[in-house]
Design a protein that fits this description.
This protein is mainly beta and 347 residues long. It has 3 helices and 28 strands.
Length: 347
């Protein structure tokens, strides 16, 4: 960069060096730019959807889509394959050595193990009733499947692919998170709580208030010891993961179901069914919401890819909402066939 004459006259060499360093410091310029929708990838197919998981190193995006898991190449936006033969998928977890993935097949009351190189199913492990949130715990090499209807956790030994513990919960679990040091956290949606587990002893070691109602998605700032549950009432809580103390609440969209965390930029994300991606600055006092990005109605789940600094969301086009009935007082509108898509957010 060539400075104007008046700047060259007044800037001493040291001052110029500092200015240049600040202008081109890694992350400074991107951090000041707003996020925007930069692409849409049409996937098609039928059925509803749930959680997504981004594998930065492999440039893959895993999407729970009805009775299958879609696998998308994030460098091209094209399908890389799918895991099929399932019964109703909720979540995906990956081991730390790049070999296996794990699917909570809620409709089959099982965890399905697949080979990440071939996408072939290698094992099916019976779990509790309707496994939903799922996470791999790297210290104990165990897979934790949180069963929504039986209100317990099935802990699976990744080496033997067998259940080694079943832990009763105080209520209906939602999304889990791990700290990489042998501790597991999970939201308890119907009790407005967060529970903490010791992965070695398979015991609950703390039960805290989530600081908001019906916590669903959960993001985790591991190094800053902060949990970010997203809740009804347009709220994201900030909870100290060591003490359980409520640090703050931030404003987000309506009907959230997932959250994400960027350690590089100290940003927390929340995706909501009203079609808003809320972005919270966790480095600023008061945790201000610095952006509410319009995405698409129904885009309530998301995955953050830290390698690309991208957020992936999914939604589809909908038909008219059916009239309520006594058996179904809150009917959902039908998804139009072939309209399922990934919404790519970046800057």
């Amino acid at each position: 960069m060539r400075f104007p004459l008046f700047l060259r006259l007044v800037l001493r060499p040291a001052s110029a060096a500092i200015l240049l360093a600040s202008l081109f410091a890694p992350g400074l310029i991107p951090a000041q730019q707003p996020y925007k929708v930069i692409d849409r990838w049409t996937i098609g197919g039928e059925g509803g959807w749930d959680y997504l998981l981004a594998d930065s190193s492999a440039h893959r995006l895993y999407i729970a889509h009805g009775v299958r898991v879609e696998v998308i190449d994030t460098t091209t936006g094209k399908p890389a394959g799918a895991i099929t033969g399932l019964h109703g998928v909720h979540g995906i977890a990956l081991d730390t050595d790049g070999t296996f993935g794990y699917i909570s097949d809620g409709g089959g009351n099982a965890v399905v193990v697949f080979n990440r190189a071939t996408l072939a199913t290698v094992a099916t492990v019976s779990a509790g009733v309707n496994p939903d949130g799922i996470v791999f715990e790297p210290v104990t090499h165990t897979v934790w499947a949180f069963n929504g209807r039986s209100k317990d956790v099935s802990v699976i030994d990744a080496a033997t692919q067998k259940v080694v513990a079943t832990i009763r919960l105080p209520g209906k679990p939602e999304f889990p998170a791990v700290d990489g040091q042998g501790t597991v956290f999970a939201n308890i949606e119907d009790k407005n709580q967060i529970v903490r587990f010791d992965a070695r002893s398979f015991k609950i070691t703390a039960t805290w208030s989530a600081g908001c109602n019906s916590p669903s998605g959960l993001a985790f700032d591991v190094y800053g010891h902060r949990l970010f549950p997203v809740c009804d009432g347009n709220k994201m809580s900030v909870v100290d993961s060591l003490s359980g103390k409520l640090l703050a609440t931030a404003a987000i969209g309506d009907g959230p179901d997932a959250a994400g965390w960027s350690s590089a930029y100290s940003l927390a994300f929340a995706s909501s069914g009203d079609g808003v991606l809320s972005i919270v600055d966790a480095s600023a006092p008061g945790y201000p919401t610095i952006q509410k990005l319009a995405t698409q109605r129904g885009a309530r789940t998301m995955a953050y890819d830290p390698g690309a600094d991208r957020v992936y969301l999914v939604s589809a086009d909908f038909g008219p909402r059916p009239d309520p009935t006594p058996d179904n007082p809150r009917p959902r509108p039908a998804v139009l066939p072939g309209s399922f898509q990934v919404i790519v957010v970046g800057r």
